[in-house]
Amino acid sequence: MRVNFDGRLKLEFHGSKITSDGGFLAYRELDDALELTEGAEDVFDDSRTGKNGWHGVTGQFRQSLFGRLGGYDDVNDAERLGRDPAMRWIIGGKAVERRAASTSQMGRFETELLASDANTEVLTNMNGIWIDRVHDRRPPTMIILDMDSSVSPTHGEQEGTAYNGHFGCTCYHPLFLFNQFGDLEPVVERYWERNLRRYFRGDAAFAAPDIYEFMKGEGFLYAIRLKANKVLQQRIAHLLTRPVGRPPNHVRRYYANFRYRAASWDMPRRVVAKVEWHPGELYPRVGFIVTNLSRPAERVVAFYNHRGTAEQWIKEGKNAIKWTRLSCRKFRNNEVRLQLHALAYNLANFMPTLALPEEIKHWSLTTLREKLVKIGAKVVRHGRYVTFQLAEVAVPRKLFQKTLELIDDLRRRPVPA
What digits encode the pLDDT tens for the residues 326-370? Predict the structure, then answer.
């Protein structure tokens, strides 16, 4: 095959010898160091018989996760990924010499095998198990949980869908719970036995007495935004009067701290208010936070403001992992897809938090997919080895080597006798 603009050029396609996803190998090394996908066959219930089980559960599970990690969010992509050399080596086993699972095999794996009650429960709990393994290697001194919701638009006759007036579409409206490292958490109760300082942040959608009591009972300190009302505004009326004189060119901030009891509350709670007067604006910006923190009001507001990172992590999940692609008709199948997206997101997020050199530690998950995962490579076979000759463009050899060394530091070392 030739191009016309320069007759010296020839084009060749070698699908089984060339990969555009050479960076998958670094993520597979991280997976191996943390022991994430290893032993999937022991925890999932495999009811397949005969040739239906040609590809093992662990291999197909890896194919589902790493496909999403690389931006291949649909099982239709399995037809091409099944021939990709990087994907085949990640899966291992029979896929190395032949090919990975086909589109139909991956479809049955996700919509039948993983959709059983037992396997869906395993998927639901797996994020917590993965995060525990990370914390065992890098123990945190505290845990901060941020909860927020997102939208996954739906189309046609999908089960469980409903119209959402806020987003103006029919959709699923899942809740996401992140820790301070950006990892997706499954539940709060996992930290009951850990000796950690525990914090929770949420917007006004979570301002409910049941949540306050639950967090208090679980030993969490919380900061949750409150919607403004007349009673709250009356308590800070002295701060809502426009200051006399020419306004300065900088923002003026004022804080208030008082006890407040709403009609639905069984007891008064601490409320912190912040009032901001911005240059050129006629009215102030006002916000209220209900909290059981004992720190000064200004520090409570500063702590709550970091909740905005949860919105950024949701954007990462939408853009890098494409977790809004819930296109199955049955609700259970979409539940499985979202759980797989969440696991792929956590695997992607473990890389910058645990194993990236300082030079590229700030890269977003989308940038990592475009620059680290999407490394072109040529596969060369020798007698005993297979060599991936990686392109040295966005990620040079030195950075890739540093990444592998940091991943190696995460491995469990044998205890000296």
Answer: 989 999 999 999 999 999 999 999 999 999 999 999 999 999 999
CA torsion sign for 111, 116, 121, 123 is negative
Could you give the number of structural domains in the chain? 1
Does residue 104 sit within a domain?
yes
Domain assignment of residue 114, yes or no: yes
CA dihedral over 110, 116, 119, 120, signed as positive or negative:
positive
Determine the residue type at 353: T
Q: Identify whether the C-beta of residue 378 lies closer than 8 Å to the C-beta of residue 388.
A: yes
What is the residue range of 53's domain? 18-120+329-408
- How far is residue 289's CA from residue 81's CA, in Å, rounded to a whole number? 49
375 in a structural domain: yes
d(CA 2, CA 12): 9
Neighbour-count burial of 6, counting CB atoms closer than 10 A to its CB (0-12 exposed, 13-18 middle, 19+ buried): exposed
- Per the domain annotation, does 397 fall within a domain? yes
CA–CA dist 201, 313 (Å, integer): 15
DSSP state of 152: E
> How many other C-beta atoms lie within 10 A of the C-beta of residue 81?
27
Structure tokens at 274: 């912040």
pLDDT in tens, 283-336: 999 999 999 999 999 999 999 999 988 889 999 999 999 999 898 999 999 999
Q: Which DSSP helix (H) or strand (E) runs through 255?
A: strand 252-260
Separation CA 215–CA 209 (nearest Å): 10
The per-residue b/e assignment along 129-144, b for 16 or more CB within 10 angstroms, e otherwise, is ebbebbbeeeeeeebb
Q: Do 11 and 1 meet the contact criterion of CB atoms below 8 Å apart?
A: yes
Nearest to 87 by CA among 109, 69, 107, 111: 69
Per-state percent for the chain, helix, strand, coil, to nearest 5: 45, 20, 40
The helix (run of H) or strand (run of E) holding residue 343 is helix 331-350
